[in-house]
Write a structure and sequence with these properties.
The structure holds two protein chains of two kinds.
Chain A (H helix, E strand, L loop, with lengths): L7 E10 L2 E11 L4 E5 L6 H8 L7 E6 L2 E2 L5 H6 L2 E4 L11 H7 L7 H14 L15 H13 L5 E5 L7 H16 L3 E6 L2 H7 L2 E6 L2 E6 L6 H9 L16 E10 L9 E9 L3 E5 L6 H9 L9 E3 L2 E2 L5 H6 L2 E4 L14 H9 L6 E2 L2 E2 L1 H14 L16 H13 L5 E5 L7 H16 L3 E5 L3 H7 L2 E6 L2 E2 L3 E2 L5 H9 L3 H8 L1
Parallel strand pairs in A: 3-8, 3-9, 6-7, 7-8, 13-20, 13-21, 16-19, 19-20
Antiparallel strand pairs in A: 1-2, 1-4, 4-5, 9-10, 11-12, 11-14, 14-15, 17-18, 21-22, 21-23
Helix pairs in contact in A: 11-12, 11-13, 12-13, 13-14
Chain B lengths: L3 E5 L5 H25 L4 H9 L1 H4 L4 H28 L6 H19 L7 H27 L3 H21 L35 H19 L1 H11 L1 H6 L4 H25 L13 H11 L4 H25 L3 H18 L1 H4 E5 L6
Antiparallel strand pairs in B: 1-2
Helix pairs in contact in B: 1-2, 1-14, 2-13, 4-8, 4-9, 4-11, 4-12, 4-13, 5-6, 5-7, 5-11, 5-12, 6-7, 6-11, 8-9, 8-13, 12-13
The chains are: A alpha/beta, B mainly alpha.
């Protein structure tokens, strides 16, 4: 196996920021033609490590070698010159420009447009990544946008390709295409550093893995020889609890949505088209979908941030579509949006103030408009205690909490308000595994107490774990709602991809 | 490699949010002193004339000390209103125009009653002044909420419209019929029912100063204890979170512009009935613009604005004194005041960032 010399070898790499050691004495190596996984929870130091490799961050100490020669890129340009390319998790594309223009913008000396377009066509064809250079980026799906980023890298003929969480925005079918491309690249001799926390993917794709925890390497292993559970426990450093769910009887319809259509809130938003479903008390409805297919808009329509015709949303038999967020909260319809910092919580406000943000009415924190801060503080304390939020106390700002802790706070804030219907978007996005397990358990407990829960998520494993019934949102349309138990990956893939015959079937049913 | 780097703090520093205004004043004194020295004046004397003499010089203090409240009153009253909007991300730059229109409306009501000696006249004038300023601020407010125009530009440009209306009023409708054709209205100080006299002799305290103090208390309670104040702060920090908390953005824009307009209008009314005395072509002296500096110098905090208003009034009075005593040009005084805002914004970085002197790691 160890027949080739490593392309990239890293030894003793250390980087600390004030108050936190992001990487301590990290070492591993990647060989040409291999797909090497970098595995770890959020905050384990994966991104700092790849930023050092890509020249965005300088290590405090340690050494890197590329093809045996010392390698210390001072900037991404230097890294690119050394043959390192990176596809970021968040795309840096201009919606208003077309594919070729976007690619040209990332190049040092872009060739003439016609030549570039031709090259894009050949390379994209060669690697099974169909892409039309003249399409405007704003119209493309997340998967297609990712292809632009990958093509950008491929045009540099990189020796090492770094992929940061590439599948978080893809449908299962798009993942298959991506994996085929990556395997082809590896077969041609490119080394790939693949960052993820999705264990099954890593087991399917990678032939080596470095596992990071709290900035240190805890294991170098062959992921194909480990079970997903072994890998997870290495990553988290403790035994994981699977959420427990008791079979529960469902009650009468708590939320009924009928023909909900809303125009897109802005140019690159998604219009909602005739959304129809029923939700019973005690039930968890999972809504899957690829990012940007109307999840945010659906949450806004349900939370009351976007108003709809009164009768299109019925809460316990009463029309609420025309009511704003606070009126809906008073009736028991609570929500937790995806974006924790800046939407669900105000970053620079204290946890007490953030408890006030949605709790003012339902928790009796205000009287005739005057605020009862001691009571809000007690409410924040109660959330912190009940949901194990790790923070010095309620005077801490929301921004100072880690993603997982803030998410626990945001979800706990709504759950402690005893909702009859709770809508949550991306409940565990960017949250470490133990916090994610706690949040999923809290959602199941809430349903067990008789609340109706809608979980919108792009994490299909999560939805399969907690949902009683499942549907998918695609281009603002909702698929038929089907029992989650017994759905195959292919079924789900078709639903996510928007096979609209399901909608027809649903309407005639 | 850059040697100095800025690192974002996990939470805004409480120490620096209090220390930056003091540091800014100190830096202004140093840089201003250098400027005065370059102009050939004794910098220590100039700084002393600006900051010390107006209050404690035995020769001038009797005149200039009351001026402190006279000048600070309108600045504080206007800045309090502006600060609510600035906190919410609503940028009313046109308080000067609302101040003018408030003065015109209030004075017009008073002059309409002339010479009736009724106690109700002055309260009616105050209401008319507030309504005038409110209505003038509603123009950018409605244009923004209906047509999504930029309230900064609209409110600013309306200042120049208001100045033209002021000139027209002073020369036309409100001109004193017994004034022998000179521009300007009747002197309201000489019409008892409509005048805003000094309440306690020798202090400069008039109804506008009282209103400013009430506004400080009102804004403090609003921002710390009331849900509307909470929503104002929330909307400024994260508009999406505010929406999620049930804030109607359009209503908040109208509220903030309305309150700041009404307070600016009231400030104009108290000025025209008191220190200024009459509607004249050059009635406005820039309080509406200076109040923007006061609002930021006071960190948009009501108590801070109270102190900043007094400080800014001091530099005005001291500046005039320095022109008169030391022959400093008026432009130098304005530059000095500009430095104050400049340094405040510059050192403000310290609240949210810390400075690191990084080793330029060897390549």
């Amino acid at each position: 196996m160890n027949d080739t010399a490593p392309l990239l070898r890293i030894e003793g790499l250390t980087k600390s920021y004030p108050g936190v050691v992001a990487n301590a004495d990290v070492g591993f190596s990647v060989r040409p033609g291999r797909i090497h996984a970098l595995l770890g929870e959020n905050g384990a130091g994966k991104s700092t490590l790849v930023k050092m490799i890509y020249g965005l961050v300088r290590p405090d100490s340690g050494a890197m070698h590329m093809n045996g020669a010392p390698y210390a890129p001072a900037s991404p340009n230097a890294a690119r010159a050394a043959g390192v390319a990176m596809v970021f998790q968040h795309f840096s594309l201009f919606d208003a420009l077309d594919v070729a223009e976007n690619i040209a913008l990332g190049m040092e000396n872009p060739p003439p447009r016609r030549a570039l377009a031709a090259r894009i066509r050949t390379v994209s064809h060669e690697y099974g990544l169909p892409l039309d250079p003249t399409r405007q980026v704003g119209e493309l799906s997340a998967g297609e946008r990712q292809r632009i980023e990958i093509l950008r890298c491929l045009l540099q003929n990189p020796g090492l390709l770094i992929m940061d969480e590439p599948t978080s925005v893809l449908t299962p079918q798009e993942v298959t295409i991506l994996f085929r491309t990556l395997r082809q690249l590896a077969a041609e001799g490119t080394a790939i550093l693949y960052i993820s926390h999705k264990l099954e993917e890593i087991r399917a794709l990678c032939d080596g893995a470095t596992i990071l925890r709290l900035g240190r390497v805890v294991a170098n292993c062959d992921p194909r020889e480990k079970s997903a559970r072994d890998l997870a426990e290495l990553m988290v450093g403790q035994t994981l609890q699977s959420p427990s769910r008791a079979a529960r009887p469902t009650g009468k319809v708590a939320l009924s949505v009928r023909g909900l259509s809303l125009a897109a809130p802005h140019t690159f938003g998604t219009a909602l088209k005739r959304i129809t479903f029923d939700l019973k008390a005690g039930e968890v409805l999972g809504i899957g979908g690829v990012a940007g297919n109307g999840q945010d808009e659906l949450l806004a329509a349900l939370s009351g941030e976007a108003l709809a015709p009164a009768a299109s949303i019925m809460l316990n038999g009463a029309p609420v579509g025309h009511l704003g967020p606070n009126a809906r909260r008073a009736l028991g319809l609570l929500a937790a949006p995806e974006d924790r910092l800046g939407h669900a919580a105000a970053p620079d406000m204290s946890l007490t103030e953030n408890a006030m943000l949605t709790g003012a009415g339902r928790m009796g924190l205000s009287h005739k408009g005057f605020l009862d801060w001691p009571k809000a503080r007690n409410f924040a304390d109660a959330i912190i205690a009940a949901f194990d939020v790790r923070t010095p106390g309620p005077i801490s700002t929301a921004r100072s909490l880690s993603g997982g802790n803030l998410q626990k706070f945001v979800i706990g804030r709504e759950i402690l308000q005893d909702p009859t219907v709770f809508v949550v978007n991306q409940p565990t996005w960017g949250v470490d595994a133990s916090a994610a397990a706690a949040i999923r358990q809290a959602l199941l407990d809430l349903a067990a107490k008789g609340a109706a829960v809608i979980a919108i998520s792009q994490d299909l494993d999560e939805l399969m774990e907690i949902s009683d019934r499942f549907c998918a949102v695609n281009e603002g349309r909702l698929s038929a709602v089907r029992p989650a138990h017994g759905l195959s990956v292919d079924d789900i893939g078709l639903m996510l991809g928007g096979a609209h015959d399901m909608e027809m079937r649903h309407e005639t049913a | 490699m850059s040697v100095i780097r800025l690192e974002r703090r996990a939470a805004p520093s409480r120490f620096w949010s209090v220390a930056t205004p003091i540091l800014a004043v100190a830096l202004t004194m140093i840089a201003g002193g250098v400027m005065f020295a370059l102009l050939g004046k004794d910098p220590v004397a100039a700084i002393r004339t600006i900051f010390w003499d107006p209050l404690f010089n035995t020769q001038f203090a009797a005149y200039s000390r009351p001026q402190l409240l006279v000048k600070a009153g309108p600045l504080i009253l206007i800045a309090i209103g502006l600060s609510l909007g600035f906190r919410a991300g609503v940028w009313n730059i046109g308080a000067e125009g609302q101040y003018i229109i408030g003065a015109i409306c209030g004075a017009a009501v008073g002059l309409a009653f002339y010479p009736a000696d009724l106690w109700i006249v002055f309260p009616l004038m105050v209401i008319a002044g507030a309504l005038g300023g409110w209505a003038w601020a509603m123009i950018p407010g409605l244009l923004r909420t209906r047509f999504n125009t930029n309230e900064i530009l609209v409110s600013l440009l309306l200042v120049y419209v208001a100045e033209q209306i002021l000139a027209s009023m002073a020369l036309g409708l409100l001109r004193n019929p017994e004034g022998g054709g000179f521009p300007g209205s009747r002197n309201l100080q000489q019409y008892a029912a409509a005048s805003n006299p000094e309440l306690i002799a020798g202090t400069g305290m008039h109804w506008g100063v009282v209103a400013a103090f009430i506004a400080v208390i009102f804004a403090y309670v609003l921002l710390t204890r009331h849900i509307t104040g909470f929503h104002i702060r929330l909307a400024g920090q994260s508009p999406r979170a505010a929406r999620f908390a049930g804030v109607n953005p359009a209503r908040l824009v109208l509220l903030c512009l309305g309150v700041s307009g009404a307070l600016a209008g009231m400030a104009g009314l108290f000025e025209v009935t008191g220190p200024a005395g009459q509607i004249s072509i050059d009635f406005n002296v820039g309080y509406g613009f200076t109040a923007i500096i006061v609002a930021f110098l006071g960190r948009l905090h009501p108590v801070g604005i109270l102190l900043a208003g007094l400080l800014m009034a001091l530099t005005y009075i001291g500046g005039e004194l320095a022109q008169f005593m030391l022959g400093l040009p008026a432009a130098a005084i304005q530059a000095f005041q500009g430095m104050l805002l400049f340094f405040l914004l510059a050192v403000d970085v310290m609240t949210n960032y810390r400075i690191r002197f990084g080793r330029g790691a060897a390549t």
